Amino acid sequence: MFKTPRLMATRFVSCFRSDKFMKMMNRNGIRYFHFSSSSLTTNLKSHVFIGDQKVPVFLAKGLESSIDIDRVINYSPFKSWLTNIQNVMNENQEKSLNSNTYHWKELLFEGIEIQSVDIFGSRNIIGFVKFKVNVTVKTDKDEIKKLPGIVFARGGSVGILIVLQCIEDGKEYLLLVQQPRIAIGNLHSLEIPAGSMDDNGNFSGVAAKEVKEETGIEIKDAELIDLTEYCLESKFSGHYMSPGASDEVMRFFLHKTQMTRVQINALKEKMAGSEYENEIILLKVLSIEEAVKTSPDAKLLVALFMYNLYLNKSKI
């Protein structure tokens, strides 16, 4: 008998809520909670201060039994987001006192709804948080306008440009990683090695760790060149990759090393990746020209641009 779309959808959702499915996810070291709500009508759980505003923080309906609101508030990327917002408030106050041309006067925060939380691994750490900020802006003309407030918080990350220079002929090659990226519907995404920051804030240490995990190459922190530090003003911690909806800020590093032709060829098509993080990675060695044509990775282009500045000994 033909099943109605509603019945099929109900059974589809039910299978993902089943004990069997959750056990499978736990075996892979991932625990995932996701609930959504479109309103700020859930019970007040906590609050944060933004300037002199006491802003309520809510858990979306259905999330209360599985997530501790204090863990979310103390989640490092959430705290960094609060700090950035506070800095903007302070900066605006200073400018409004010294200028009549600044286009907004005040941000008004009504509430923050925590909509979903991803818990990663056996260590039970928070990986990602999605929240919605109910915020309006008061312009210099006393107009009140609502601002987009959806935030996918994941925090800092690092991207590493690995340049292999052939000893025999001096030609440069890039070591890239090919891996599945379900988010973009691509099982063979070609990228520079990259990874998320931990709470220690040690960018170079994380970069070295990611190179080891994703390529098998062991390097020391001192062998990494911080391209972001070289190119960007010190007030910025990195480059924002998708500021319309995500807080992700990426810092770029360069590792340049000389290898023989035999050593370079040995890296081609080599399998790598962290088993703990369920990574399936195939190494690719390409010329810069080939990499630019065959990789849609924006991180690659940013890193190459900064590498070119570094080679030319010029700063922005």
UniProtKB/TrEMBL annotation:
Give the molecular function GO annotations: ADP-glucose pyrophosphohydrolase activity; ADP-ribose pyrophosphohydrolase activity
Q: Which CDD domains does the protein's record reference?
A: NUDIX_ADPRase_Nudt5_UGPPase_Nudt14
Q: What domain of life?
A: Eukaryota
In terms of Gene3D superfamilies, this protein maps to: Nucleoside Triphosphate Pyrophosphohydrolase
* Cofactor(s) needed: Mg(2+)
Q: Which InterPro entries match?
A: NUDIX_hydrolase-like_dom_sf, NUDIX_hydrolase_dom
Q: Which portions of this protein are annotated as coiled-coil regions?
A: none
- UniProt domain Nudix hydrolase: residue ranges: 153-308
UniProtKB keywords: Hydrolase
| One GO-annotated biological process of the protein | nucleoside phosphate metabolic process
Name of protein? Nudix hydrolase domain-containing protein
